Amino acid sequence: MKKKLAFLFASVFLLTACSAGPNGGGGASAGGGDSDAGNKQEGDTIKVGLNLELSGAVAGYGTQEEEGAELAVEKINEDGGILGKKVELVKKDNKSDNNEAATTTANLTTNDGIVAMIGPATSGAVKAAIPNVTKAQVPMITPSGTDDSITVSNDQVQDYVFRSCFQDSFQGVILAKYASDNLDADKAAIFGDNSSDYATGLTKAFTDEYDGEVVAKENFTKGDKDFQAALTKLKKTDFDVLYVPGYYEEAGLIIKQAREMGIDQPIIGADGFGDEKMIQLAGKENVSDVFYTGHFSTLAPANDTVEPFIDDFNEKYDKEPSTFNALSYDAMLMIKEAIENEDSADSADIAKGLAELKDFVGVTGTISIDKDHNPEKPLVVVGFTDGKESSAEKIEP
Question: Is 168-294 a domain of CATH 3.40.50.2300?
Fold first, then answer.
């Protein structure tokens, strides 16, 4: 008999919170010992770069991460800064373009003298940035780049690359188990984006773990708008759950068109669903029995830091914080803790501090960085009814 995971339900007054998605080789070993390594902290400020998708196709992710980082820096500076020095954010827009992300990284690390970088948001842009942070020996934390190969490539750990989010393989495994154990789904159909590393990684992880049978597979490409033909094929198939690995732009339209065609089976996806625009594109009336893996939910607070974070975010932005807000907020506070632990804001020391980070209490959970530079922390499966977050289930790794 299948074991059921219990839902955590919250009161109705809480509003919905949204969640997210070229290799570089490892460089010199991270962490101190080389007085010429990386960028040195100079003057009365600690410069941290933001390399985010603030315009273009996936600006929804980058703008949320900008908000989270800005709030974190505001709180840090109000409390006296880090090691007595104020934090300065140096913000640049990579325009949702991988080549631009690489150029932006070079400018931040070489011309602006940052000692750490937050972003990019998407896996492809992160991969494009890796060679330049490695060359400069400046650590970066991606809040939402979930592709497994970001932190480990060709069996080699990327010394200057970290993340505050979990990786695709973990999401795919959890979604496969969730489909079987919680949704009683013996047959799954997969409708995935075949144009992104993010989606193909999620598809593989789900397929490898799923106990049931994958009875149908269809593909789309980023930027597609009309999914009627593929959905018509899927509708003729006997399946219990529809798995849609992809980003919110296409996922919203797929949900809308699927529901309007009478496909009423549960729809599941990963953190790429996590933007309010997904609900806007789908239409609230169509977003029921929709579930995705997230890093944060106001319905399932990870610890006592969450409520003050929600209050501060509401006061600053007059809205509920999303997963992407929370992930970048944590990324900035991880940098702060690494600096304090090493008693140094030089970039090589920050990298060492991040690699050794243990039991950091963040709003997305208590985080310890593992040997592959990935965070060990809980995952949340968020459920929607009529376009509103109605359930959130915290699952420990």
Answer: yes
